[in-house]
Amino acid sequence: MDKQLNGAQIVLQSLQDHGVEHIFGYPGGAVLPIYDEIFQQESIEHILVRHEQGATHAAEGYARSTGKCGVVLVTSGPGATNAVTGLTDALMDSIPMVCITGQVPTHLIGGDAFQEADTVGITRPCTKHNYLVKDVNDLARILHEAFQVATTGRPGPVVVDIPKDIQFALGPYMKPKAVKHKSYQPQIKGDMAAIKQAVELIANAKKPVFYTGGGIINSGPQASQLLRELVQLTGFPITSTLMGLGSYPSADKQWLGMLGMHGTYEANLAMHDCDVMINIGARFDDRITGTLEKFSPNSKKIHVDIDPSSINKNVMVDVAIVGDCAHVLEDMLRVYKSDAVTPDKKALANWWSEIEGWRDRKCLAYKKDAKAIKPQYAVERLYELTKDADTYITTEVGQHQMWAAQYYRFEDPNRWMTSGGLGTMGYGIPAAVGVQVAHPKSLVIDIAGEASVQMTMQEISTAVQYRLPIKIFILNNEYMGMVRQWQELLHGGRYSSSYSEALPDFVKLAEAYGATGIRAETPAELDDAIKRMVDTPGPVIFDCIVTKDENCFPMIPSGAAHNEMLLADSEGLDIEVSDAGKALV
Amino acid sequence: MSAENQIERHTLSVLVDNEAGVLARVIGLFSGRGYNIDSLTVAEVDEQEHMSRITIVTLGTPPIIEQIKAQLGRLVPVHRVVDLTVECDSVERELALVKVTGKGDARVEALRMSEAFRARVVDATPDSFVFEITGNTEKIDAFIGLMKPLGLREVSRTGAAAISRGPEAM
Prior knowledge:
Chain A is an alpha/beta fold. Chain A is built from 23 helices and 20 strands. Chain B has about 170 residues and is of the alpha+beta class. The longest helix of chain B is centred in the middle third of the chain and has 13 residues, at about 105-115.
């Protein structure tokens, strides 16, 4: 006979059995029984956010910096709808998350009750899977399944919607291992024949490139280790998507920098001109490929992905391997070694000298300014002054995010938290909260823009409450910079609604929240100010006043190819963007 | 036009857990990703295991059809996806109820045609018939086409149900 618990106790017991130590949430009428159980136990700490979107991003930051599942608890109706942005964000970036939502009691469902929303209906397209629990006897099984679905295969968010009467009802509890899903069985091991084919392509490559993504991070630190081994064994160049930064150390000479719309010149040209492309854990996203018709026209493409639907979705590939990155890399390495593959040294040397030529273009160079802080310079200095600390970086979305990706450098996985697929402004502060909860002693910095940061600014209050010393480093150019840049490029410089008017005084705002505010306006004072920020024991809002009209380069304009990049010193911005290109985002 | 851009019609059989919302998941996938549904039928086929079978007739280029199958396959409650158009020989049947109204020659002609198509009369009044016809989609299309000038009033179709030929099951 299984132990009988009430629904709320089943929730807590299940969280404990899945090793959950922190949950991010916000109470409300339909989750009060669960909050009552939280009150009566000590093994799980609840972090009270200021808005449910904040809870989801905090859970994302927590998950991405630890490899564990992020857990969110919100109430019915507005609690659930406020969580939708974060759920979608987690779906796009493959972040493991279990989101428990309260629901009105079963007998009121469908009657437009107070704070009722069709949560499973609303979240169906923005979750990996979701459940409405209609019977307390199913609750334990559903919760265990939710963790399994969220954390295995291609990770993603799972919603469990629990009506209030189910939280009070008595039901059985069984341990997680008693639950096995009937239909959900993701493929972990890659097909050996395909792996051998891939190694053969690698062995004969003359101009190869590794193109890696968030899948390496999701697969765990071991995947990163195996990737490093394979890349170093082959001597091939490697680039990565935004989501994959840190899986390969940026200090290594084989590292080309990030690729894509704001990737480096050398990475994008290597992608364009390569003869063998080895995609591991990336999904040929449109930020990466540019126009598909002109994407890497002469290469054989290998694609390793745990999600079968990623294969041949945007780009047709020659060798497809469905499986977990670490498992596939391990098998690839074994085959590579047992076949005693020796890369074509001469061809590789030629390829590298071509790449060195592109590197010499120094695409990330920018004009320094003695009086005003350039945003690139701010990130460079931030990097120099924090690189030796145990640092985690989150970002908002926009120009500052790209500058962070370009000028901050990552040597290890799980150090870089950003909203890639969905591009959610407001991600950075709550994500930093989540990261800091997981790593209380580390230095956690949100590289932000003054526009994005205002979308979830209230979470600084969460940081103050829980003594989370996050640092919010705002590159303040008084513009929604990326919007402004596109308006300059595509809309005749008509800056429609992209000026950040009526900005708050961020230093005073920090003080109002009980945090510390620091401002830097000149390059001369920047270093000292950053050091002060790092040395401040509590949360800091750093208002870094930067030049207003800086554009983010390099850039592949919409509808263009990898070899049609704009560089900072290109002749103005008067390039022709086709109408088809203008229609793209 | 290359084969890759040619629009094809495929019949997919999808075995799913018969749980709340599973049909909404499948339909939402098609509408959310802009795929076509030509017809869709669903019913529980294994009461003990709570399994339903969804038959979807869809249109798309070969790469799109491959995407549809992969996307269906990754839905959590989906057990199997079989493309009956390419993976095996299959039988496809659809049932339609066709209401035809009229008097005189048209009425006689409608009844005569229904016999030729082996349709059954399931309801009759002095001014109307309801025919039940079973067959593949083309046959039903043809029958409905013939009924148009003879007083076709309304049609209710089930959409295609399909199964592979031979002893193998999905």
